[in-house]
């Protein structure tokens, strides 16, 4: 399991495969978990979710960008997504990754790009979630959030439960709308819990903290045990349903997504789309090698 995870994380970071994949179109089963390669296809996917009472957080795929032109292109694409949400009256908001907007190129360049995005979204009353990436990008991402929060209130972020410092961070960002996750990247022992049980325990602790704190909480997991725990916890502590939502990734546990929405819980699907699908798809395989079933089904069901 450890080896398989490391292998897919290694593949997710392979630059040649990443750039090759942009030319291939959606392949290897990625079409089951990526909602198209362009805005038109993505809008249709979000409309279909909205018809089931499910909202969407839209991710224009791309990360670890090292060229200014590429970061500017990503910014234009995200601005176009914001306009598409507004024009199509979608029940949706944006998820983005600071490294796609130039965090590895130049801090101020990245802040300027993000400011433009947050400002347009603010105009249309659209929320922007800053996804959290690997540890090296944690502090500068929080710094950008602090900087933009001086002028805008439509920003939230992610707390990753595998980090020892997640408790400190959730307290620091207690006034924000937060998505709480277990954590998707490979992090060393001196920074992050490695043991699944310890991650799960900390995950529950953080969710309970933010739910009791009263700010909006997005519980982003496919783990039904966590979901059942949260349902019981919210009931016991009379936490209103409009104070939290469950989130899952597009294409995963579709039955459970629909079931939770039907039960009257707020449900939001993370909708990735775009040409830059390869790294995202490999990380999903790293998390859960059973996802390889998706690949086999697509390859053999032609
Ligand atoms: P796991 O710990 O992987 O699985 C727990 C159990 O759940 C499994 O044993 C199984 O019983 C069940 N299960 C899990 N998946 C399935 C499935 N597909 N089908 C059936 N049963 C299943 N990570 C970040 O680092 N930064 C982010 O910004 C970020 N954003 C995210 C946004 C969303 C909406 C989601 C859902 C995840 C996000 N992640 C992010 C990834 C997250 O950190 C985890 O790596 C990922 O969600 C896997 O953990 P899990 O909690 O879903 O369950």
TrEMBL record:
Keyword Flavoprotein set for record: yes
GO terms under biological process: L-proline catabolic process to L-glutamate
Residue intervals of the Proline dehydrogenase domain: 44-291
Binding site for substrate: 97, 283-284
Keywords carried by this UniProt record: FAD, Flavoprotein, Nucleotide-binding, Oxidoreductase, Proline metabolism
Catalysed reactions listed for this entry: L-proline + a quinone = (S)-1-pyrroline-5-carboxylate + a quinol + H(+)
GO molecular function: nucleotide binding; proline dehydrogenase activity
Note accompanying the cofactor annotation: Binds 1 FAD per subunit.
E.C. no: 1.5.5.2
Recorded metabolic or biological pathway in which this protein acts: Amino-acid degradation; L-proline degradation into L-glutamate; L-glutamate from L-proline: step 1/2
Entry cofactors: FAD
Classification via InterPro entries: FAD-linked_oxidoreductase-like, PRODH_bac_arc, Proline_DH_dom, Proline_oxidase
Domain of life assignment: Bacteria
Binding site for FAD: 132, 160, 182-184, 196, 221-222
Protein name: proline dehydrogenase
Species assigned in the record: Neobacillus citreus
Lineage, broadest ranks: Bacteria, Bacillati, Bacillota, Bacilli, Bacillales
